[in-house]
Amino acid sequence: MTPFKREENGEISIEISTQESHVLISLTEQLLELLSQGDSLAEAQDPLLHLVGISDSDALPDDPVLRRLFPDAYEDLASSSEFRRYTEYGLREKKKAHARIIYEALTSQGEPEEITAGNTPIDKGSFKLIINSAELLDWLSGLNDLRLALAVRLGIGEGRKEGMNIDTKAIHNKYELMLES
User: Fold this and answer.
1) How many other β-carbons are positioned within 10 Å of the β-carbon of residue 92?
2) pLDDT at 37 (0 to 100)
């Protein structure tokens, strides 16, 4: 992957390999699936609350990735629960929209049978991906959500290097290098 480059017209371009594209597509599909898990609850709630984007549930999500993406806003449990009730639905919808923008940009770069997460990511070269300035913040937010989800699944966090086995340390070091690039 080459660094992001701002073009004269304000667009961002990046040369991305098909392997990198496969990884991003797969991660984005998984994130969309995870974020959609609460949709069935949204349909069952009070229609008026749904209309204004308020959830019936104020519980902290069970999944650790969702807990990282939707953390407690306050130290006080009651205040956090109330805040979650009024904001989580809207935040979840925004995160899904950001992930869809990334997914659609990557899957529109070739034939569907060539670029899908289900195919083996055999290196078939690379392509130039253009991100227009209107979608730039959506991309940044979506990539940050993917970064957080990946860190949770890999067990990467502040002060967790102690007690890691050699394989986990190697994964952690590669993750840190990826963040620095």
Assistant:
1) 22
2) 84
Place of tokens 């340390």: 169
3-state secondary structure of 6: strand
The verdict on pTM exceeding 0.85 is no
State which residues form the domain around 158.
Answer: 5-180
Rg for the chain, CA atoms, rounded: 19
Phi, psi of 126 (to 5 degrees): -145, 175
Return the closest-CA partner of residue 72 out of 64, 63, 81. 81
Cα dihedral 43, 28, 98, 14, rounded to 10, equals -170
The continuous run of DSSP H or E covering 5 comes out as: strand 5-6
CA distance 35 to 94: 10
